Amino acid sequence: MSTALSTTPYGTGGGLLVTPAEPGAQSGTLPGTQSGALSGALSGALSGTLSGVEPKELLDLLAEAGFLLLRGFGADMASFTDLVQRTSTSTTLDPARDFYSEVAQKVDAGLDEVGLHTENGNSPFRSHLAWFFCEKAAASGSQTTVCDGYRVWDELAEPVRTAFLGQDIVYSRHVAEPQWRAMAHHLTGRPADEIAVDELVVLAASLPGTEVTPEADGGVRYSFRTPAAGPTLFGERISFANSILGPSFNYEKPRITFADGSDLSDELLAAVTGTTGALTENLEWADGDVAVIDNTRVMHGRRAITDPRRTIYNALSFVETAGPVAA
Fold first, then answer.
1. Computed from CA positions of residues 256, 259, 262, 264, in that sequence, does the dihedral angle turn out positive or negative?
2. For residue 33, what pLDDT is reported?
3. What angle do CA 252, 258, 260 make, to 5 degrees?
4. At 63, phi and psi to the nearest 5?
5. Is-above-0.90 flag for pTM?
6. In degrees, to the nearest 5, what angle opens at C-alpha 205 toward C-alphas 204 and 209?
7. Which of 193, 73, 182 is nearest to 133 (CA)?
8. If we measure between CA atoms, which residue out of 286, 245, 224, 282 comes closest to residue 70?
9. Which of 20, 28, 122, 173 has the fewest CB atoms within 10 Å, i.e. the most exposed one?
């Protein structure tokens, strides 16, 4: 049986709070939409658990909203893992984090505030979706933040948009040997200690915009070239979704430049920081919540941790789509 869903706006943008519909509730459509695919997400026999959430219906809602917060479904690690796997064609990971299920890794980035970013946005491995499962909500603060790149792009001043449309940005950083070996193991399936650095160089050359150079200490320096703004998973509309303001908890902080090697000016960064700051919203977690974010459209981050008992897991995945950035 599928779960009948009820949706209400979450925050001031397109985000939605999704809950199981009350027994006997009438199906409907989202405000400002036509009946059809989206109305299917509000129909079906009530089961009230994540196991009844239909992947296509979830993705239809996500295409409109940018991010969804699912509440009241009695989620646990098993049902979260199942929903991710049923919705996705494949999953990916951060080799620096530990696994807690086939897809879930614990969010562990210290206690400081984390800047807005897209998951793996400074590498060629940016996922389509970013998922979160809140096992234990914080008693205070510690919220996850979200910022819709559609809204950011619309609000940025024309000179700022012109600068970012004019050329790509480049992330570059040193990656220590244990870290690049862990990633190479994930990509090839071979034992990490059997992979030669020359193989990594060849592999990187096959990834769009990516270059790897061996360094004397056994590590490598990689660079990744990509637009700061562009189309999304679900459409051609331009979104400002990147990792310019993002964290580097498990890795060296990258240098970020334009493709011609010039730095992003203080004025440009101030404009981005001001606009994103005004549009950033909090996800106020409750125990058992699940969130799914269009990682090609919506950036996320975190307020400073004030309750270290907070326990959140994440998963990264790809989906089948006819959208412009399908991979």
1. negative
2. 37
3. 120
4. -60, -35
5. no
6. 90
7. 73
8. 286
9. 28
Residues sharing a CB contact under 8 Å with residue 275, sequence separation 6 or more, in sequence order: 152, 155, 156
Which residue carries 């996922």 as its tokens? 127
Mind listing the pLDDT tens digit for each residue in 207-265? 999 999 999 999 999 999 999 999 999 999 999 999 999 876 566 789 999 999 999 99
Number of alpha carbons in the 13 Å side-chain half-sphere of residue 153: 20
From 61, 60, 68, 75, select the one nearest 11 (Cα to Cα).
Answer: 68
Q: How many CB atoms lie within 10 A of CB 144?
A: 25
